[in-house]
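Follow-up to my earlier ticket, as requested here are the two runs.
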Amino acid sequence: MTSQERVIHSLESCPKNAKPAILTIGNFDGVHRGHQAVIERAHQIAEQQHAPLTVLTFSNHPASVLKPDLRLIPLCTNAYRYHLLAQCHADLIVAITFTRAFANQSAEEFLHSVNKHLPFSHLILGYDACIGKDRQGNREQVEAIANRWGFTLEYLEAQRLDDDIISSTRIRNLLQQGSLDEATHLLGRRPSYFGAATPGQGLGRTMGFPTLNLDVTGLCLPPYGVYAITANTPSGPHRGVANLGTAPTIRSDERILLEAFLFDCHQDIPPGDVEVFLHTFLRPEQKFANIDALKAQIACDVEAAQRQGFSSIRIEIEKGC
C-alpha cells in the first residue's frame, strides 16, 4: 500500500476495524526524531495488540487558524509528511482540516468525535500535547477522560539532544542558518525534499547536465546555493549535485527550485516521486555572465560533489523510523 492510499481526509471515512486502533495525534511537521519516538512507541503497542496504528493529523497547521499573523514555514509538504509517517509504520493517516469550529471543541468533545468514528484503545501523545479549546486539555484532563472511558493513555518524555528539546522550531532555525549537520541530528535523516519532478526549460540537458526539478516554494529552506546530494528515485538511489534557488542566470520567474543533476544516471527517470537529501553546501548561488560561464562552473560543482564522501546511500535513503 502506498502512502497516498493510507491517507483519508475525514473521520467519517475511517474504515471499521476489527479491533480498536492504537492512536496518536499531532501535526508532525518534519517527522523529526521526537515525532518518530512517539510513533515508534505507538507501533510497538500496535504490534503487541495486533491492532492498526492510526495517526491523526491536520492538512493545515493549527497555527494558520489560531495565530494567522504568525508566518509558520513548514519543514515539508503534506505529501512528504504522509510519506514519512507511512515509513514509520502508520497503517492509516487521518488528515483533517483544522478549523475555528474544530478549535472551539473541548478535549472531551474532540475525543468523543474521534472515538465515534475511530474507536481507539490506546492514545499515545508527545510530552507537550494539549487537546481542545485553548489547549485546556492538558495531561490531567486527558488522564481523567481516559479513566472514565477506559482507554490507555501514555505521554512520552521529551526527546532531547545536547540537553535541548528536539522541536520543529529548532530545526527550522538550524536549516535557515545552513546548519545541515545539526539539523540532521534532530531530524534523524539528512535535510530532504520530496515530490514529483517538475519540467524545466531543458537548458540543463543541452549543457550536458540534465536535471530533476523539485518546486520547494513555501518550504523552510537552507541558504540558496549548490549542494552535494543523494536522491531516492523510482530507478533507485543516486548521488548528485543540486542548485537550490531561483537560477538567476537562466530564469526570471522567481520560482524556488531544487534542480538536481544525478551522477551515473544515463536514462530518463521513470515517473514518480523523488526524495532529495542535502549533504554538503558547496557554494552560494550566483548569476553568471553567460551560459558558457555557468556550464564551466557546473562542471566544477560536479567535481566538488563527486569528491564528497557519503555513507551508504541505500542505507540512508531507505531507512524508516
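Run two:
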Amino acid sequence: MRQHLIIDADDTLWENNIFFEQAFDEFCGFLDHSSLNPVQIRAILDEIELANAKTHGYGSLNFARNLAQCYRRLAEREILDGDLETVKGFALRILEQPVEPLEGVPETLEYLALRHQLTLFTKGHPEEQKLKIDRSGLGIWFGHTAIVKEKDVASYRSLVEDLRCPPGITWMIGNSPKSDVNPALEAGLNAVFVPHERTWTLERQPLRPPGPGRLEVVESFSGLRTLF
C-alpha cells in the first residue's frame, strides 16, 4: 500500500549539529573561562537557546545571537564590539559548510519516492533551510516541502490536514525524539526513529509509548527499505 512518508532534514538527511558543535568549541576557546568547563558553559548556553527559541526560532543566525548573549554573560574581560563579531562569526561560518547527504540517503530516497508519497518537513529559518535543501540536491525526491518555526503536535496536525493524509498510513521519520517522533505519535501518526549519535541535546527525550500509531526504530536511513 502506498504510504505517506514525512521526513526530517537536519541530521536525518545530512549532517547539521556537528557544525554547531564545532562553533561551540571555538567559542569556548575564545571565551577562555577561568573556572567553567565546556560542559558547564554548554548548560548555560542551552538555557539561553531554550528561552530564545520560543521567540527567535532556530538556525545559524539565531545561534550567533545566542552565542553573543552567552559571551556577554560569561566574559571575564572587557567586552569589545570586535569580540562580539568574532563570537557571531563562529556561528555564521556554519552557513558556508557543505551540505552532504548522510550515507545511504540518496539511493534510499530514490527507492522510497518510487513507492510512496514523500514530504520534507523541517524547522528553522526558512531561507537557511531552503538553501540547504537546494545545495543537498535531495529536493527532487519530495512532492511537498514544509518549513515551520516549531515541530509540535499542532504543526503535525496542520500538515496532515493540508496534505489530506490518513493518519493510519502516514509516518514521520527523523532523528529527534522531541521534534520528530514524540509529537508525531501524539498527533496520532506513525513514526520511525533514525538515531544519530550527535543529535542536539535539546532534541533528546525518552521515546514515548505509541498511541494509536506504530513506532519503529531503524539503525540507519537505509534501514527504511526494510519497512517500506
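The only thing I checked on run two: The two ends are 9 Å apart (CA to CA). Let me know what else you need.
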